[in-house]
């Protein structure tokens, strides 16, 4: 057998490399399928007050910088965004405003991913508690716990008696329309710190003893949202740990939620653009899409 010359070896090697390159270039490309993504929910999902505004549905105060848009951009998903400020669970199956279809109408058997925040507006939980405790805080000069003294467990009782069953019903309806979809239910990031920050009173005028009261109320709501999500086969995205230290009492650039007074958003006590991005990033991480 003749011994290969260096020239023959080089020629053979080049031919092999060329064949490999040709094979790689002509191999069939792997098909990539974009997620069919439907975003439902209230103002925390719509990012009410964050610019730029989505002018396709002005009544909903929806932003094109909300966390669903961030998720869609990161995943190249096909997004249908029907989030709407002030939405309640009933608005999944009823028209919230004239010309605004029930949110669940956007969900179909072909939907791959659904995200949402919901429950905070049922029974007026958020707005009633913040308004009541803010008013009581101003009248008391920030002292004591006038809001808790007056309302006690009433907000919590409404959450258990009415919000929880409404959440389960709404989530079951979404699951029935898209049985193969991943449904991610986001908790609400912290609005208040766990304990009072006296320097925050001018921006969030809640009495010292009512700050932990509101914090506990939000924790209770989130626990009920989590329970409803888990009992209907949805993924709960927990913000209790990651949003700590990013409440409305923190400085600009740190806070995810704007305060009641002297904030930077048109809509107070709601996530700002940074908060929406962080909500998107944590959701992507929990879902394994980030």
Automatic annotation (TrEMBL):
**UniProt keyword Signal, yes or no:** yes
Question: Signal sequence: where?
Answer: 1-31
UniProt keyword annotations, A-Z: Disulfide bond, Signal
Q: Name one GO molecular function term.
A: triacylglycerol lipase activity
Catalytic residues (positions): 43, 270
Report domain SGNH hydrolase-type esterase positions.
Answer: 39-277
SUPFAM superfamilies hit by this protein: SGNH hydrolase (SSF52266)
GO BP terms: namely: triglyceride catabolic process
The cross-references to Gene3D superfamilies, in alphabetical order and at most eight, read:
SGNH hydrolase
Task: List the cysteine pairs that form cystine.
Answer: 60-84, 133-147, 200-249
Superkingdom to which the source organism belongs: Bacteria
Q: Which PANTHER family match?
A: LIPASE 2, SGNH HYDROLASE-TYPE ESTERASE DOMAIN-CONTAINING PROTEIN
State the protein's name: Lipase
Q: What is the phylogenetic placement of the source species in the record?
A: Bacteria, Bacillati, Actinomycetota, Actinomycetes, Kitasatosporales
């Amino acid at each position: 057998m003749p011994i290969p010359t260096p020239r023959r070896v080089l020629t053979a090697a080049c031919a092999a490399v060329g064949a490999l390159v040709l094979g790689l270039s002509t191999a069939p490309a792997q098909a990539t399928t974009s997620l069919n993504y439907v975003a439902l929910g209230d103002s925390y999902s719509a990012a009410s007050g964050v610019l730029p505004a989505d002018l396709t549905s002005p009544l909903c105060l929806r932003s094109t910088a909300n966390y669903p848009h961030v998720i869609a951009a990161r995943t190249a998903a096909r997004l249908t965004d029907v989030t709407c400020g002030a939405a309640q669970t009933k608005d999944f199956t009823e028209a919230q405003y004239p010309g605004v279809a029930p949110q669940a109408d956007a969900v179909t058997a072909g939907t791959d991913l659904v995200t949402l925040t919901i429950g905070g507006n049922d029974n007026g939980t958020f707005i009633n508690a913040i308004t009541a405790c803010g008013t009581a805080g101003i009248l008391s000069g920030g002292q004591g716990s006038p809001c808790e003294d007056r309302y006690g467990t009433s907000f919590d009782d409404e959450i258990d008696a009415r919000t929880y069953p409404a959440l389960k019903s709404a989530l079951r309806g979404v699951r029935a329309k898209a049985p193969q979809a991943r449904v991610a239910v986001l908790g609400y990031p912290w609005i208040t710190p766990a304990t009072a920050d006296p320097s925050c009173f001018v921006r969030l005028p809640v009495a010292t003893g009512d700050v932990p009261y509101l914090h506990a109320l939000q924790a209770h709501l989130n626990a009920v949202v989590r329970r409803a999500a888990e009992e209907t086969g949805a993924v709960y995205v927990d913000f209790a740990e990651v949003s700590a230290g990013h409440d409305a009492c923190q400085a600009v650039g740190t806070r995810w939620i704007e305060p009641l007074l002297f904030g930077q958003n048109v809509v107070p006590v709601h996530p700002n653009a940074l908060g929406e991005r962080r909500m998107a990033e944590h959701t992507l991480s929990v879902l394994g899409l980030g």
